[in-house]
TrEMBL record:
It is found in: Cytoplasm. InterPro entries: ARM-like, ARM-type_fold, IMB1_TNPO1-like_TPR, Importin-beta_N, Importin_beta. The gene is TNPO2. The lineage of its organism: Eukaryota, Metazoa, Chordata, Craniata, Vertebrata. Residues 271-281 have a biased composition (Acidic residues). GO terms for biological process: negative regulation of muscle cell differentiation; protein import into nucleus. The keyword Protein transport applies. The keyword Flavoprotein does not apply. Residues 31-99 form the Importin N-terminal domain. This is Transportin 2. Keywords: Cytoplasm, Protein transport, Repeat, Transport. Residues 241-281 are annotated as: Disordered. One of its GO terms (cellular component) is cytoplasm.
Length: 814
């Protein structure tokens, strides 16, 4: 006979659940005390599961809350539940996983997972077989509930599921069947299981023998369904004249300017675009079987790499050349999804596949053209590595035509793909600049609202990629009038300014003095945007009931464009700064509560320090303490930019930096010594840099201008200093930092003795130091060798890796 509650006890528990939803803190306190008391009675947990699973007449929040309190009890003291109580709870969960309410199903799923994670998977042998059996149910709720529970168990107990202790009970074959279910919702749930499994460490071992069945099923799921095609207006080929509705346009967020250093590792292996695996139908932002299947294939490609291809290649051939456009389109998506994981294995096939994909760019179906844009962008790195006439030129020509396509979805996909190509090709595009600019400028007059914003990005990326090559009168004449026209049309409070200002920031940096004719109105407006935002923030702080909080992105984007102007125009920016109150505004921005505002402020301060120190110098006494307090690695980008600005200020101040050294030195030494400071992946360059490189450069510069103050601490930072700068390419910043270290070693030679091998290694990282810097290295290396004597030096240099030994012998004769 099942356990039955006592009616009075049940009413008491229900009252308690109702009270616990009260916002009153006094009531909450009483509830907590009462819960403690009731937890003394073992069958209190029976009442909780009873309310969750049996009292269907109660409201859902109360039932769910009962389950969540029970979950906490399971977490805290499941081991002390009497066996009859534990058995009753487990049975009720399995009997009610198909509850009519999705909230209750989810709550029961969480409860099952929590019990399973308490080591109960071994003690509950019927759990997984029963959940798998429930997947066969005709009832949708039961299927969905069982799936949800299985997925959570996979996430929480992956190691145990793969251990021999359980004999690997998950019936993968069963899941393969469900992924092909005619009910798309069931198929989607099953497909999510593969996505979850693919992200577990056990994936390779568990799935290797099932790829032969799984891959065709995932590939099949990547076709557009009929309903997708209707929603995507797949039969509408030309819609460029139809204005966008405002809800089509995703809100944009500006990424604040980050100071970076050129690094040896030109390009990381992984794709830097987090949203890369999102194929082209993001208007259909609803998660669906196609997207889930593509995401699962992408992750599996990264797990299995080339081992995936024997299962895929035979399918691909049939798909890519299929007469039905829907099938062909899915094949192109498959090719894009595996690009990152299977790149090495795909290389032999690309000379044949890339021309076929370029042909698909002119397919008569818009959805085929748009997916071809995306997939080609995933192979852009390979395209650029080949001789330009082979693939780059035909791809660029065809993509530019697609930028002017009559279909808005294709325009968008082509613009995004072209931006990726620009990042990969960089100066390879210089010979075609005239043609590229003609196309992008023509698109200005053609595009509706949403794609205009993507066009700004393509222009900004072009400027970043080709740099000063853009500074030619003919190019400026093409590009600037439409940009300035947009600039004049937009009001100060229009958020479309964000992408336009980002774009202009890149253009100003690239054009250098070519931007001079346009700089005054642009500069003035940026200052106005900063001033307005600060004023609004002040009013909001004083009278929050009367004023709205300002959108500080306006100020951040404006500060970043001012940085772009300072960097591009150099000394020419001096007159603009002289005629404005930017230094006063900067003082306020540097103290803003929002980290991104401070981050952009310090970038601007560094750029102004390089461009027109005459205006920065009078503010140094006020600015330095603020810079010192922002050397907090919790906000790594703020910290990096503040550190970089301090280094630039050192180079301008020289010995006058002396009063400020103590404000910043200890923090910098602490930062550079932080264990495994994370490697940051630089957003726009795709280069890895070690965040400790910027503190290292600034410490070197501080030591260069104030050696007496910094050299005594040499021993505390020399090792991490050397390791973080050995991978930075030769440049001005590295040059000044190494001069600083040499001067400090002169003041305190003892500080480097214990870590001298690291110094040798850092010196050997230079490819071509300037002559006088090479002399400094030579003197230090030979001084050390003479000091220790030939025999000790021989013993010491035995520790060197062969390459280091060779380089030091060749360049410095030691």
């Amino acid at each position: 006979m099942d356990w039955q509650p006592d009616e009075q006890g049940l009413q008491q528990v229900l009252q308690l659940l109702k009270d616990s939803q009260s916002p009153n803190t006094a009531t909450q306190r009483v509830v907590q005390d009462k819960l403690k008391q009731l937890n003394q009675f073992p069958d209190f947990n029976n009442y909780l599961i009873f309310v969750l699973t049996r009292l269907k007449s109660e409201d859902e929040p109360t039932r769910s809350l009962s389950g969540l309190i029970l979950k906490n009890n399971v977490k805290a003291h499941y081991q002390s539940f009497p066996p009859p109580v534990a058995d009753f709870i487990k049975q009720e969960c399995l009997n009610n996983i198909g509850d009519a309410s999705s909230l209750i199903r989810a709550t029961i799923g969480i409860l099952i997972t929590t019990i399973a994670s308490k080591g109960e998977l071994q003690m509950w042998p019927e759990l997984l077989p029963q959940l798998c059996n429930l997947l066969n149910s005709e009832d949708y709720n039961t299927c969905e509930g069982a799936f949800g529970a299985l997925q959570k168990i996979c996430e929480d107990s992956s190691e145990l599921l793969d251990s021999d202790a359980l004999n690997r009970p998950l019936n993968i074959m069963y899941m393969l069947q469900r992924t092909q279910d005619h009910d798309e919702n069931v198929a989607l749930e099953a497909c999510e299981f593969w996505l979850t499994l693919a992200e577990q460490p056990i994936c390779k071992e568990v799935l290797a023998s099932h790829l032969v069945q799984l891959i065709p099923i995932l590939v099949n799921g990547m076709k557009y369904s009929e309903i997708d095609i209707i929603l995507l207006k797949g039969d509408v080929e030309e819609d460029e004249a139809v204005p966008d509705s405002e809800q089509d346009i995703k809100p944009r967020f500006h990424k604040s300017r980050t100071v970076t250093l050129p690094h040896e590792a030109e390009r990381p292996d992984s794709s830097e675009d987090a949203d890369d695996d999102d194929d082209d139908d993001d208007a259909l932002s609803d998660w669906n079987l196609r997207k889930c299947s593509a995401a699962a294939l992408d992750v599996l490609a990264n797990v299995f790499r080339e081992e995936l291809l024997p299962h895929l290649l035979p399918l691909l051939k049939g798909l890519l050349f299929h007469p039905e456009w829907v099938v062909k389109e899915s094949g192109i998506l498959v090719l894009g999804a595996i690009a990152e994981g299977c790149m090495q294995g795909m290389v032999p096939y690309l000379p044949e596949l890339i021309p076929h994909l370029i042909q698909c760019l002119s397919d008569k179906k818009a959805l085929v053209r748009s997916i071809a844009c995306w997939t080609l962008s995933r192979y852009a790195h390979w395209v650029v590595s080949q001789p330009p006439d082979m693939h780059l030129k035909p791809l660029m020509t065809e993509l530019l035509q697609r930028i002017l396509d009559g279909n808005k979805r294709v325009q968008e996909a082509a613009c995004s793909a072209f931006a990726t190509l620009e990042e990969e090709a960089c100066t390879e595009l210089v010979p075609y600049l005239s043609y590229i600019l003609d196309t992008l400028v023509f698109a200005f007059g053609k595009y509706q609202h949403k794609n205009l914003l993507i066009l700004y990005d393509a222009i900004g990326t072009l400027a970043d990629s080709v740099g000063h090559h853009l500074n030619q009168p003919e190019y400026i004449q093409k590009l600037m009038p439409p940009l300035i026209q947009k600039w004049n049309e937009l009001k100060d409070e229009d958020k479309d300014l964000f992408p336009l200002l980002e774009c202009l920031s890149s253009v100003a940096t690239a054009l250098q003095n070519g931007f001079l004719p346009y700089c005054e109105p642009v500069y003035q407006r940026c200052v106005t945007l900063v001033q307005k935002t600060l004023a609004q923030a002040m009013m909001y702080t004083q009278h929050p009931e009367q004023y709205e909080a300002p959108d500080k992105d306006f100020m951040i984007v404006a500060l970043d464009l001012l940085s772009g102007l300072a960097e591009g125009l150099g000394g020419h920016v001096e007159q603009l700064v002289a005629r404005s109150n930017i230094m006063t505004l900067l003082f306020q921005c540097m103290q803003d509560s929002m980290p991104e505002v401070r981050q952009s402020s310090f970038a601007l301060l560094g750029d102004l320090t390089k461009a027109c120190f005459i205006h920065v110098k009078p503010c140094i006494a006020e600015f330095m303490p603020i810079l010192g307090t922002n050397l907090n690695p919790e906000f790594i980008s703020v910290c990096n930019n503040a550190t970089w600005a301090i280094g630039e200020i050192c180079m301008q101040m020289g010995a006058e930096m002396q009063p400020y050294v103590q404000m910043v030195l200890n923090n910098l030494v602490e930062i550079i010594n932080r264990p495994n400071t994370p490697k940051t992946l630089l957003e726009n360059t795709g280069r890895l840099t070690s965040p400790s490189a910027i503190p290292a450069i600034t410490i070197g510069r501080l030591g260069y201008v104030c050696p007496q103050e910094v050299a005594p601490m040499l021993q505390q930072f020399i090792r991490p200093w050397c390791t973080s700068l050995r991978n930075i390419r030769d440049n001005e910043e590295k040059d000044s930092a190494f001069r600083g270290i040499c001067v400090m070693i002169g003041v305190n030679p003892g500080g480097v003795v214990q870590d001298f091998i690291f110094f040798c290694d850092a010196v050997a990282s230079w490819v071509s130091p300037k002559d006088d810097l090479r002399d400094m290295f030579y003197k230090i290396l030979h001084g050390f060798k003479d000091q220790v004597g030939e025999e000790n030096w021989q013993q010491f240099s035995e520790q060197f890796p062969p390459l280091l030994k060779e380089r030091l012998a060749a360049f410095y004769g030691v």
